[in-house]
Write a structure and sequence with these properties.
single chain, alpha/beta, five-stranded parallel β-sheet, two-stranded antiparallel ribbon, 5 helices, 7 strands, 24% strand, binds flavin mononucleotide
């Protein structure tokens, strides 16, 4: 059985990311074809990248990098829950991704985004980043609207149709995550 991380991609006080990630996790854990874990960037307290060696070398000098590396390495696939900040992902998520390299390679990813236009521009940016990290990013994605999926732009109240979209995205992440696990073990 593969292990899938649901990554909370905002560390902003009052963030929406946590409610969205918990909702995804609640849907995911009804399945029996993979294991799911919430991974909160806040728990790792990563400063702006402060490693002297490029991540590709895997020579980490800081305890926070080693802790983040061990956590990311323990998964076969990832669901990134991302806000849209200035038509990109959050600085916190991009920084956390940049910390590592091999830990991401030959794994799968899906995206759950939110924003005024469903966070789609943040996801497009992340897809470019995934290519460089050799992460296979699936087609299905969640595009949650600040206008219709959050009451008063604040409280997360997703439209019912999104639940099916989460399942479709997870189907694809689990299929590709499983296929790439075979590749990694070969
Ligand atoms: C710095 C910043 C830039 C933002 N830029 C955008 C944007 O380009 N497009 C958009 O749809 N929403 C934008 N927003 C609104 C965010 O989508 C909204 O605040 C959301 O709640 C942020 O996610 P978080 O609460 O999980 O941090 C921006 C918010 C911030 C703080």
């Amino acid at each position: 059985m593969i292990k899938v991380a649901i990554v909370i991609g905002s560390t902003r006080p009052g963030r929406k990311a946590e409610a969205v990630a918990r909702w995804v996790h609640g849907i995911a854990t009804q399945r029996t074809d993979a294991e799911f874990e919430l991974v909160d960037l806040q728990d790792f307290d990563l400063p702006l990248l402060d490693e002297p060696m490029p991540p590709m070398r895997g020579q980490y000098s800081k305890p926070h990098t080693r802790a983040w590396s061990a956590k990311v390495a323990s998964f076969d696939a990832y669901v990134f829950v991302t806000p849209e900040y200035n038509h990109g992902t959050s600085g916190a998520l991009k920084n956390a991704i940049d910390y590592l390299y091999r830990e991401w390679n030959n794994k799968a990813a899906g995206f759950v985004a939110y924003g005024s236009a469903g966070g789609v521009r943040a996801v497009e940016q992340l897809r470019l980043v995934m290519g460089e990290l050799m992460v296979a990013d699936v087609r299905a994605q969640l595009a949650l609207s600040l206008f219709t999926d959050f009451e008063n732009f604040t409280t997360f109240k997703p439209a019912p149709n999104h639940e099916k979209a989460v399942s479709t995205m997870l189907d694809q992440v689990i299929a590709w995550g499983g296929a790439l696990k075979t590749l990694r073990s070969a």
